[in-house]
User: Fold these one by one.
Assistant:
Number 1:
Amino acid sequence: MSFLRSLADRDRVFDFLVPTASPVDVRHGPILYLEDVTVSFDGFKAIDNLNLTIDDGELRCIIGPNGAGKTTMMDIITGKTRPDTGSVWFGSRHDLLTMNEPEIASLGIGRKFQKPTVFEALSVFENLELAMAADKRILPTLTARMSGEVRDRIEEGLDTIGLTALRDRPAGILSHGQKQWLEIGMLLMQRPRLLLVDEPVAGMTEQEMERTAELLTGLAGKQSVVVVEHDMGFVRSIARQVTVLHQGSVLAEGTMDQVASDPRVIEVYLGAEADEEMA
Ligand SMILES: Nc1ncnc2c1ncn2[C@@H]1O[C@H](COP(=O)(O)OP(=O)(O)OP(=O)(O)O)[C@@H](O)[C@H]1O
């Protein structure tokens, strides 16, 4: 009886309603580890002996020409595509190649696709609320009884993505950039350990790009963030470590200055980008 009464108390926080931190073990190494990963489509190697290590809390930018394998790499990490060979580990405990997409997502790997997919008719707050309810670790039938802690998490998310003032407005009225931030906020509701972000600034204004740079650099440290992006100005503004993919494997890795001055990178990618910009 007292349990039923406590269920009716909206301000009571139930431990089982609040997602627990992902059990990923990073004590002995990186948060993400890909070794000798290869995947072929009809005999064509889209990923070819790829090795990649992402440290816990790191912000990594992945660049590379069209067809380099960036999207396929993300698909492999999230379980959408199975590699032919190689290993993919999340921390030292989770072999991602033995898990399906929902299992990988529930471990704390969130993916932001290029196109924002927010619920336009719902308010900004409701979008975040729904994203939290989608968390399988929260008992779905009880999400209507929002605890104070859950509400605090949404408020915190609103603050992080800079949309507090627009919390009660329908998401449909947001600018393209604001929709992108809302979707990042929706991912954050699931408390990810690793965020994979695909071309976050495509179609954004300069000002929105600056705000996105602040947002992503602010997230790093709290979670690991992998950003795939073609806009070199943006990459330069956020980059610590940059990985250059080419023909499915790592061509170069280092600081932006190091990779930008690498003759191989200039030849296959940055040279072409510069030509495009000048055209
Ligand atoms: N399902 C598939 N079937 C056949 N070929 C595929 C498939 N997915 C990807 N490819 C091919 O694999 C290669 C790598 O593609 P991918 O989309 O991963 O590159 P990318 O680096 O993300 O490119 P972009 O910058 O254009 O998004 C490309 O040549 C692509 O045509």
Number 2:
Amino acid sequence: MPEYRIAPSILSADFARLGEEVRNVSEAGASLIHFDVMDNHYVPNLTIGPLVCEAIRPYTDLPIDVHLMVKPVDRIIPDFAKAGANIITFHPEASDHVDRSLSLIREHGCQSGLVFTPATSLDYLDYVLDKVDMVLLMSVNPGFGGQKFIPAMMDKARAARAKLDKYKEQTGRHIALEIDGGVKVDNIGELAAAGVDTFVAGSAIFGHPDYKAIIAEMHRQIALHTQAQ
Ligand SMILES: O=C(CO)[C@@H](O)[C@H](O)COP(=O)(O)O
């Protein structure tokens, strides 16, 4: 049975009270803090950088899961590692040398991962799986919170899990499968059954009045859909 993790996306938090929001979701049962970095170049929005990562670091003991939506990728990796990031993921299309960017993340003491937009092929994984700790599937187009889950991503999750399971059979190493975009209580169970183990949720958590209750309900749905497996 994999460890199922809920990662609130602070993109949907109240930025005026960010430290407090991070503390509140941490105490409410979150497993990771998902940190979306957008540059208004690779994606059409502009968010937060290493200074904000450093500022929230004292508010949680949970791993900070930095999702880079920036181009180029490499220059900013050491800054995030220094700011307290634990996991750093990036989009292969945004890196000049994917293998080098993955190595750079690990050299800086973080877990590494590749992110796939809805239309990006999983083939990018083929020659670099040994350097990947987490695969992040985007189930919306990157740039904004509060979008609708793209249904075709359910099959993509199954395909990704099959690839990662095959790799585990060969090597014994588990690679986490994370999904991001439109994750709610009504689809999280099916996603878990499809093989996803890490769930990013922004508006579903920060838009709910009781963070503890919504995270508990997400775990309940996951358990309901995976117990029989
Ligand atoms: O990276 C992104 C969007 O680009 C996501 O992390 C969103 O922030 C998820 O938000 P919801 O769809 O859960 O509201």
Number 3:
Amino acid sequence: MGRLKPGPEAALFEHYNARLRPPLVVTELPEARGSAAEVRRREGAALLAALPEGALLVAMDLGGQAPTSEALAALAERWEATARPLAFAIGGAEGLDPTVLARADHKLSLGPLTWPHFLVRGLLAEQWYRVQAIRANHPYHRAWRPG
Ligand SMILES: C[S@@+](CC[C@H](N)C(=O)[O-])C[C@H]1O[C@@H](n2cnc3c(N)ncnc32)[C@H](O)[C@@H]1O
């Protein structure tokens, strides 16, 4: 949700998206006005209407599953195998509407911290690049963890 103006968040997203093959295609939808519930409902309706037909919808949500990067790479492989167009939904300041969460095929959390939605765009692009690196055995991803 929202139109991202030029600035550090846009640069962060572009930095990682330029490395992605294929790059992510962003559809920006205007943020709605009204009460928090109205905003969520209006933005949710716009978001669902903008989905490509048959999309496999991954809702970015704090209440979702927070996989490791390796587990996300495995999920990506499963999603790709469906041959459905993949769509990530990032909510606005009020979060995603329950109708979007109900439609989602997967709810993905980046952890329990709340991030600004424009930062989530860049974080997701980095993580998707990491997923591609894991799947390609590229040394960008260092899997070592202290034992
Ligand atoms: C400022 S947050 C919305 C906060 C709202 N109170 C909620 O809980 O959804 C804006 C959007 O960024 C995304 N987001 C923020 N933090 C996230 C996290 N830790 N994991 C996944 N998505 C996150 C979600 O799509 C969220 O709708």
Number 4:
Amino acid sequence: MADRVQFARMNGLGNKILVIDMRGRKDRVTPEAAIMLNADPATRFDQIMAIHDPKAAGTDAWIDIINSDGSMAQACGNGTRCVVQALAAETGKKAFLFHTVAGLLETREHDDGMISVDMGIPRFDWKDIPLAEEFHDTRRIELQIGPIDDPVLHSPSVASMGNPHAIFWVEDDVWSYELERFGPLLENHPIFPERANISIAHVRSRNEMDLRTWERGAGLTLACGSAACAAAVSGARTGRTDRTVTVNVPGGPLVIEWRESDDHVIMTGPAEWEWSGTLDPATGAFQRDETSGETGARAL
Ligand SMILES: N[C@@H](CCC[C@H](N)C(=O)O)C(=O)O
């Protein structure tokens, strides 16, 4: 038990997150531990957010983001809100500056419990997504799935929110597409050398869209915050939407603002604590706290 750390099972609009407290330690959550934790229905997750000691002055923590297949991700909007809620409950602070492989993330918990994350400036250059071939206009790239003369999905917009996203625009209901079938094929398409998160978007109005996402390294999820940001900026870039849009993901609505003043993308939504326990970050062996199980915001 001595080598165990605290963790909380949380969710951001149904995106299943394990927040693991690695502060004060030099080791990292291993891919083996991630795979073990994901294999148990009690701890099955979409992402792990491992909180480490800060690496730079002025920041509150370094965060490693790990997908359920054990791979590392550069961004996780829903998981970031979960970390904010856990640390706000622990410290009473309302604002945090986090550091990830993709850069700095400014965050704030509002009085109504909603949490905003500054997801940074999106990138659109084909080399930044990255794509395997040169495309001058990433608002619409040549990529399709299904019969060549009658594709089911085609011509996605692509964007990087630190992590790679492709957004397929559809005129009809996002639920009428077999994303569980097309998602893995598109995630691993050779055009995406680092794989990609694959979303289907239906625009309802200039300020609202519906979005389903097949996540790189995690599969179908109820919510993907960075995909909502990528879809919002791609909607604005292609003239479909305004710069502030409500993105309805299967788990509920996220509000995304692509700020005019500095091009940063601000994502606002909820986070929810479910239960907590201790685990071994090397093996993934875990124990649930007997006393945990009430809902509401909790410290780790
Ligand atoms: N759920 C996340 C995105 C997680 C990362 C993604 N699977 C990747 O590998 O890029 C979110 O809320 O942004």
